[in-house]
Design a protein that fits this description.
The chain has about 90 residues and is α+β, with helices and mostly antiparallel strands. It has one domain. The protein is about 20% helix and about 30% strand. The chain contains 1 helix and 4 strands; from the N terminus they run E-H-E-E-E. It has a 4-stranded mixed beta sheet with strand order 1-2-4-3, covered by helices on one side. It is elongated and about 40 Å long.
Amino acid sequence: MTGGGVPAADILFCGDVFYEKPMADRILAWIKQAQRAGLPVLIGDPGRSYLPKARLEQLAVFTVPVTRALEDTDIKRTGVYRLKDPSST
């Protein structure tokens, strides 16, 4: 990601990257760039603070056991999303 370009890939997966605003802003810009280049992007996120929910379409929801020492619960709901088509927003 540091180079900022779109990788040569069939699909891009981003997981749990919206926990800080600077990171969320950079990732969102990169995801939009990948989408414009025609690269499908799937995002896995448990609902972190800076997840841009209004810009995303939720595709699936899962309940996942997590470490209580790291999270505020034993089970976390997490989702799989994709960026909405910019023409639909």
